[in-house]
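Per reviewer request, we include the raw input and output of the structure prediction for the construct analysed in the revised manuscript.
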Amino acid sequence: MAEALSSSLGTTPRPATDEDFDYFKKLADIDKGWSRQYDSNGIVVWTQTSEVSSIKLLRVQYVFQDISADVLYDVIHDPDYRRVWDDHMIDGFEICTLDATNDIGYYSVKCPPGVTNRDFVNERSWRVNDEEYMIFNHTVYHKDHPEKKNFVRAFSYLTGYVLRPQENGACAFTYVTQTDMKGWIPAWLTNKAATFFAPKIIEKLHKASLGYVEWKKEHKPEFKPWLKPEQMTKPTPLEQLVVPDTTQQS
């Protein structure tokens, strides 16, 4: 199912369309094509093969009973708080914005000993309505941020979240990703590791969300550009970002 969205997004920056969001929502909601790999303590992990890569899509579903969708949405977005809870993060920052709901950012991550650290340049898109919060990203090329020494540039075909408010303040959570860590790591190992570590995503986000509201009170409480577009940096014209796409992912 992911082939159409992954191909249409491409690696040249552009704002996500309603069709892109609708397609991503289908990946999150429709079970056809997915194979259940794990089901325990309310956490369900699925995988799906893909024609665009030997890296499988991964989907994680869970209902947070004590975390609301709006808080979880803020936790996922807030770059300052990510430095608090994401102990794998080396660096992360906004490169530029495209419009009120699309930006491009840099993120680097620590890898285990013996494995070169990875980094990403991703475009991130988001949409909020009365029924759900959606965020997804994909790797793009940016002329001012080429590959760096001592890092392997990883590739996100598609990674994102759908968060839906439930009764009594609960949140139905779905995470979908297809990420190639590149380098010497074989696809079978990436697929196995992703499935094994997927449940830990729930644990990390749950712990981070429980502490967010109090933390935010002391750290720019009114600053939420993902909800207040007037706080965003000035958008960069697309023509300044277009670069030749000479590397086709397979």
